[in-house]
Amino acid sequence: MGVILNPYTSDNLIPLGNLVAYLRFNNSVADQSGNHSPTSNGVTYVNGLFSLGSLEAVYLNDNSDYIQISDDGSLSFTNGSADQPFSITTLMEPLNLGVVEGSIYQKFLFSKRGSGSNGDLEKEYQFTTTNASTNHKLFWSQWDQSSGGRKNWQGSTNLVNSTKYHIGVSTDGTNMQFYVDAVAETMTPSSSGTYTCMENLGAPFKIGSTLWGDQYGLQAYYDGFAIWDIGLSQEQMTAIKEKQYSGQELL
């Protein structure tokens, strides 16, 4: 996707010291940052999305396929009184956008949202597509579990099946920004109820279907999945995207 004129020249812009987790997916779901011990179920290792190497990406085929990281404070982006900066980046190729499950078109990329009916316990955040049969846009939700308040942001790009993307989410703790191929999205915010901040709750971080009922998973290829403890700038997003589009690992 796009021509890379100067690969590697922006390596100094990539803040590797701020990595909370980095899953290369090189025939494993190991966290190269050394901070976590992810587990998986049903994943298939495939060729990298932008590299020539084999077994350097994962394929999640259905709702029983997922990657999970046990609950940890570094995955809850709050200090108890205010939301904190973070970013999440990944290479991704969706395959089942527009496929309905029950009456739901929404597809989950990842979430930290717990059990209970419809995942109503331990709700922190989730990153999905919009619940629409067409015009599949990125959609972020986060909750103040105690008050029931909720904040949402919708992106502007219509994602297309069988297309490779670099996806980024970045926030300073207040303002949320999505990036698709390092291009800033036009953001549409919404909210409901009284919201103070997210809470540090006990649900695991899950790539794929929902924790409750194993539902609504995005069938997709993933490569180079990273969680950061800072809000990445567009310049940093571009450096990360160029590095990964060149087929190079961050670590």
Give a description of the structure.
5% of the residues lie in helices and 34% in strands. With 251 residues, the protein is mostly beta strands. The protein has a single domain, classed as Jelly Rolls, CATH 2.60.120.200. A hairpin with a 2-residue loop joins strand 12 and strand 13. The N terminus is likely disordered.
Quick structural gist:
With 251 residues, the protein is mainly beta.
CATH fold node name: Jelly Rolls
Structural shape? globular
Number of strands: 16
**Helical fraction:** under 10%
- Major sheet size, sense and barrel closure: 8 strands, antiparallel
CATH class: Mainly Beta
The number of helical segments is 1
From the structure provided, what is the oligomeric state, counting identical versus distinct chains?
Answer: single chain
How does the helix and strand content classify structurally? Answer: mainly beta
Which consecutive residue ranges, at least 5 long each, have pLDDT under 50?
A: 1-5
Average pLDDT value?
94
CATH architecture: Sandwich
Number of domains: 1
Key features of this structure:
251 residues, 16 strands, disordered N terminus, 8-stranded antiparallel sheet, mainly beta, globular, Jelly Rolls, 34% strand
List the SSEs and their pairings.
Blueprint: E1 19-23, E2 39-41, E3 44-46, E4 57-60, E5 66-69, E6 86-94, E7 108-113, E8 123-129, E9 138-144, E10 149-154, E11 165-171, E12 176-180, E13 183-184, E14 188-192, E15 205-208, E16 220-228, H1 234-245
Antiparallel strand pairs: 1-16, 2-5, 3-4, 4-16, 5-15, 6-11, 6-16, 7-8, 7-15, 8-9, 9-10, 10-14, 11-12, 12-13
